[in-house]
């Protein structure tokens, strides 16, 4: 049996990502990975309407990625969309624009499907395939928490919390003021205590009791924010999956990165090694989300995965 070349185009709230891979069962060999920021969710949260320019830009990038996947001889290409498209009152406009751009029907997936696929994708890493862990998947418009072990999932939920959503909820100056960081931390503390802890807390407690004394359930992060923090920690100028996935971020280092990022103007943040210039704004809320989750649930370390949603989607119906 030979591998099949497949492609997934992931239309997120902040960026569009492409994965072309050779797939054989749960073995995934990436051939091409690309990401372009289109800010589909920009200006979205007040009206829940996708802006025409954001729709056009996103469809154009999807068209480019579909052409790239075809040039690499992908036998199957799927286009999926997540939070912003899921919540938009005019999602049909995005679907139509993508259909025209590449001739592929857009599939808007549910938050539950997004959570399931994120976990399945991360567990294609053999070192995470059969151990219990909590997955934190931070996107532009939503954040998924999945607690599981191998094929078992003990908890999964998609929350309306994301980097772009939070950036548009709480504005900040350039450079950000100290009280703006404090306000963001306070807002996240209240969100976690009101929305997340009542759901996630009991599941974490149940699973923790099943572990041998002294062992804690590890926290694994996937998505752009965690990958970028790992690149910053390792001072990586270019993307390197092996280095990123071997990186461990302590709570102390996450706090340091958060406070350093919030102390700098945008122009200085854009000079940081490992931080893509176009991500230098959304990294602010992203870093505080990670910090707040780690503090709230007592995690002292974050492991980083470059896998996730696309790695599961590319296997679907393979």
What keywords describe this structure?
Nucleotidyltransferase, domain 5; six-stranded mixed sheet; 318 residues; alpha/beta
What's the end-to-end separation, in Å? 12 Å
Form type: globular
Structural class: alpha/beta
Helical element count?
Answer: 12
Q: Give a short account of the largest sheet.
A: 6 strands, mixed
CATH architecture of the largest domain: 2-Layer Sandwich
| Rg, alpha carbons | 19 Å
Number of domains: 2
Account of the protein in words:
The protein is an alpha/beta fold. The chain folds into 2 domains: 4-108, Nucleotidyltransferase, domain 5; 126-309, Exopolyphosphatase. Domain 2 (Nucleotidyltransferase, domain 5, 2-Layer Sandwich). 44% of the residues lie in helices and 22% in strands. The protein is built from 12 helices and 11 strands. It has helices at 52-71, 83-87, 91-102, 111-122, 163-169, 178-209, 224-234, 241-246, 251-262, 266-269, 283-297, 309-313, and strands at residues 4-11, 15-24, 27-37, 76-81, 106-108, 132-138, 143-149, 152-159, 219-222, 248-250, 301-304. The protein has a 6-stranded mixed β-sheet, with helices on both faces. Helix 9 runs antiparallel to helix 11 (283-297). The longest helix has 32 residues, at 178-209. The radius of gyration is 19 Å and the shape is globular. The mean pLDDT is 95.
């Amino acid at each position: 049996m030979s591998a099949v070349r497949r492609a997934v185009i992931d239309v997120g709230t902040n960026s569009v990502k492409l994965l072309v891979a050779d797939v054989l069962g749960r073995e995934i060999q990436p051939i091409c990975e690309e990401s372009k920021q289109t800010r589909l969710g920009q200006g979205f949260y007040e009206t829940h309407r996708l802006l025409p320019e954001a729709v056009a830009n996103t469809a154009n990038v999807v068209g480019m990625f579909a052409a790239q996947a075809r040039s690499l001889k992908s036998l199957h290409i799927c286009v999926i969309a997540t939070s912003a498209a899921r919540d938009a009152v005019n999602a049909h406009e995005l679907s139509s624009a993508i259909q025209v751009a590449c001739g592929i029907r857009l599939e808007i997936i549910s938050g539950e499907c997004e959570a399931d696929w994120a976990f399945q994708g991360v567990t294609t890493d053999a070192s995470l395939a059969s151990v219990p862990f909590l997955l934190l998947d931070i996107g532009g418009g939503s954040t998924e928490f999945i607690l599981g072990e191998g094929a078992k999932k003990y908890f999964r939920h998609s929350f309306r919390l994301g980097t772009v959503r939070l950036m548009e909820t709480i504005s900040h100056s350039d450079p950000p003021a100290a009280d703006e960081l404090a306000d963001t931390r306070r807002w996240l503390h209240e969100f976690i205590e009101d929305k997340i802890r009542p759901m996630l807390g009991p599941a974490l407690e149940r699973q923790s009791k099943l572990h041998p004394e002294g062992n804690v359930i590890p926290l694994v992060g996937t998505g752009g924010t965690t990958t970028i923090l790992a690149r910053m920690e390792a001072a990586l100028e270019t993307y390197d999956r092996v280095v990123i996935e071997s990186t461990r971020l302590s709570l102390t280092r996450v706090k340091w990165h958060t406070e350093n990022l919030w102390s700098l103007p945008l122009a200085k943040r854009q000079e940081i090694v490992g931080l893509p210039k176009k991500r230098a704004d959304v990294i602010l809320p992203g870093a505080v989300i990670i910090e707040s989750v780690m503090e709230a649930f007592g995690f002292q370390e974050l492991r980083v995965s470059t896998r996730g949603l696309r790695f599961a989607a590319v296997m679907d119906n393979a």
